[in-house]
Amino acid sequence: MSGALSSLKVLDFTTLLPGPYATMCLADMGADVLRVTSGSRPDLVEFLPPKIPALGIGAVSAYLGRGKRSLSLNLKDPRAIRIVHQLLAEYDIVIEQFRPGVMAKLGLDYESLKKVNPRVIYCSISGYGQTGPLRDRAGHDMNYMALSGVMGYSGRKASGPTLMGIQIADIASGSNNAVIGILAAAVSRAQTGVGQYIDISMTDGVVALNAMAGAAYLAGGPEPGREENWLNGGSLYDFYETQDGGYLSIGSLEPQFFKALCEAIGRPDLIPVTVMPKPADFQRVKEEIRAIIRTKTRAEWEAVFRATDACVEPVLGLAEALEGELARGREMVVAVPVMAGNGGSDDGGGERGGSAGAGTGSGAGDMPAGGAGGAPSATVRQLANPVKFSRTPVAYPFAGVKTGTHNREVLMGLGYTEAQIGEFTATGLFD
Can you say how many angstroms the Cα of residue 314 is from the centroid of all Cα atoms in its chain? Predict the structure, then answer.
């Protein structure tokens, strides 16, 4: 069965995390995604450990490149621009992640490409947007978070803002907004026949995540501070250390959940206090609860709360989360095929292949590539796409591949001969 987005063809010029994550989501849902990167300056993510020997690339690259073919081109070569123009006849969605102005210098900006195909949907992801005072400034996830206002009221009063273990600006703001924008533009194009340009700023996206605090402030409310509101440590909603150095997350905001919490910890006398005590009582009550939580191990508290609906859950390590009951029950980890030949030469190619069924299982990502004719030679365990469709399920045809794996396949599909491809290889078109 075809995926929900099987009618979309995407030309992906992105590297690192925001763009590749966005196009991986599109590929999981059935879109045909062709990555275009430099053969001499491949995506740095390819080299992040641990390496998967069967693919010759790192595990992160194998994940972010899932289901995508890979074409290497030197975009400074005029021949590469002609190939991109040829591809635009089919691949009429473009996503790029260069600094503003870079694609224009190459002749691959929206204004240039829409002359080739007026139906093109063109999405640019950048740190600070295509306009504004910081458009040319370099940045990383924490910088975008810092400028968004979010970190101004996140963390602890005593220690200040806190580093996050995941890339919120990159993924929640960059990747997800790019997917939303592209799909909205595709719906519009289906109605009008015309494409459009999409400007995604990761900082803009994080600013918009100030949904509750931002709305309140703009309506005349006070500027939020750390540990001052219901959800940032200013209520009982918080993390509590256990006897063995673990943590519980206690989100017992509503009265019925607070009642269940108080009963579970043996303090029904606190029930009349309610979730938000009077300021004079707040710290006393919170410290009493902290002291109680320190009397048992995390496992002991897990047993206490297992049968209690109090919005209390343990803080898991990544290994616990990915190998645990919830991950298995929801099929959050999948076994994705490593296709034979995908770790081959820059002018080699594999086929798009069939889909891997969802489900957990031991990966064999340390196995050497083998098999024949595009058959799976091994599998690698990866995070599943979180979207679950009833009729058009996501599919995982193959794990990500080395830069340039599909050069020959793509160019022959455009009508180039073996001799021409050999000349391109010899003269540096793929570098």
Answer: 24
Give the residue numbers annotated as catalytic, written as ranges: 140, 170
Tens-digit pLDDT profile for the chain (431 aa)? 689 999 999 999 999 999 999 999 999 999 999 999 998 887 889 999 999 998 999 999 999 999 999 999 999 999 999 999 999 999 999 999 999 999 999 999 999 999 999 999 999 999 999 999 999 999 999 999 999 999 999 999 999 999 999 999 999 999 999 999 999 999 999 999 999 999 999 999 999 999 999 999 999 999 999 999 999 999 999 999 999 999 999 999 999 999 999 999 999 999 887 666 566 777 888 999 999 999 999 999 999 999 999 999 999 999 999 999 999 999 999 999 998 655 443 343 333 333 334 333 333 333 333 333 355 569 999 999 999 999 999 999 999 999 999 999 999 999 999 999 999 999 999 99
Q: Which residues of 291-327 are buried (b: 16+ CB within 10 A; e: fewer)?
A: ebbeebebeebbebbeeeebbbebebeeeeebeeeeb
For residues 431 and 429, what is the distance between their CA atoms, to the nearest angstrom?
6
242 SS3 class:
coil
186 in Cβ contact with 163 (< 8 Å): no
d(CA 8, CA 27): 9
User: Which residues is 122 bridged to in the sheet?
Assistant: 94, 197
Domains of the chain: 9-205+345-351+380-426 (3.40.50.10540), 238-315 (3.30.1540.10)
